[in-house]
Model the fold of this input.
Amino acid sequence: VEFVGQVSHELKTPLTNIRMYAEMLEEQLAAEPQQRNYLGVIINESQRLSRLIGNVLNFSRTPTLQLREVDVDALVRRTLDNFLPGFSARGIAVASRLEAGRAVTTDHDMLEQILNNLLSNVEKYAAEGKRVAVSTGIDGGQLALRVRDYGPGIPASERRRIFEPFYRVQESRDRGSGGHGLGLSIAATAVRRHGGDIRASNAPDGGLVVEISLPSAPA
Done:
């Protein structure tokens, strides 16, 4: 009951913003720059709502793999593009090095959800670092996906629990950061469903690094 109440509240916020900005856009159709700004907010909040709903649905069911040919680098580019308005609003610069170089057989939607959740965590917990770096590659027959932020990182004593459902690092709880500890749990479940591995570590110069490896049979 607590979970449903919390998620319902979080879903309500982007919906309120969508409605408010849509009404403002309707009242000021003649203002071209404002139109673009309002539309950007509507699109960004709609995408955020879709990600939240996707997390709820994925948490409530056992994921089933739907394997098909996926251009991983193109998928990552599109996903980053979806996050750019939110990142820009928070002053987060994006760097990417996409070197998978070929399509692989994997579950497109699950891979997109994994990346969505990792990038959402950067927005929620590491925006103060002002940077995020995403890379892809093929390493030893495995697809490697790496997301690195420049935020506070995670204490070693808590790192082993961050993939548990509903677990939130103490510092994020103290700061009142959004989220309910589902994103990394859902990402880890999807990775393991693929027969892959997910790891998190603190970078030597600060920030959290999440590394994922998945089987990369050519499509």
